[in-house]
Amino acid sequence: HALFRQFLTTKALAVLGEKEVLKTKHHAAMLLAEAGWVEDAACLLIEIGDLAGLERLIRNSAMTLIGQGRHMTLENWLGPLPADRLAAHPWLLYWWGVAGQYRAPREARQRFIAALKAFPPRSDEGGRWLAWAGIVESIVNEWHDFSALDPWIDWLEERTRSGAVYPSQEIEARVAVAMSVIACRNGRRSRVPMPKPKPNGRN
Predict the structure, then answer these.
(1) Is residue 197 classed as helix, strand or coil in its secondary structure?
(2) Using 50, 70 and 90 to split pLDDT, how confident is the model at 145?
(3) What pLDDT, on a 0 to 100 scale, did the predictor assign at position 58?
(4) Whole-number mean pLDDT of the chain?
(5) Which residues contact 188 (CB under 8 A, 6 or more apart)?
(6) 195 neighbors 164 (Cβ within 8 angstroms)
(7) pTM of the predicted model, to two decimals?
(8) Residue 15 CB: number of other CB atoms within 10 A?
(9) Average pLDDT over residues 115-122
(10) Is residue 93 a contact partner of residue 115, using CB atoms and an 8 Å limit?
């Protein structure tokens, strides 16, 4: 019950003090996350303002949440994070795009673009490829101006001309799906060379 919980919180503050209560709540959030109660853990981290802990939880849980179709849950977790913290972590920007790509594809596209620009060009090629695929998919999901695909077809052409390779088979598959949705864009698909996978096809 909400009132009883408030009573317990007030009592704990009076007995333990604010610093100790925050420490206890943080520990409780970690235990909840370890036990798989990630939604309760996220609520507690948001309540105490532990943004670093929330970021870790998002990075560890995002793929599972999306796989379960819980896009709104993930978006709600990302909402409390300030823009500067999001900008400093391209994977958070990427997952923010994924979380909103069906509800608000135009906003999602901007998040994917920001993520692609933020990923280090050589040390996180996988993130750049996934962000590119997200941009393409969000343009198609918006179903409005397909000419917006053109610069991203150019991006792919430039990458392939420079000898880019896929970091993994999973990423190759994601890019292939994105390529399939632009197959009819002014017939340009026929002249877009596909990057080569790594020799072993994996990281």
Answers:
(1) strand
(2) confident
(3) 94
(4) 81
(5) 150, 153, 182
(6) yes
(7) 0.77
(8) 9
(9) 86
(10) yes
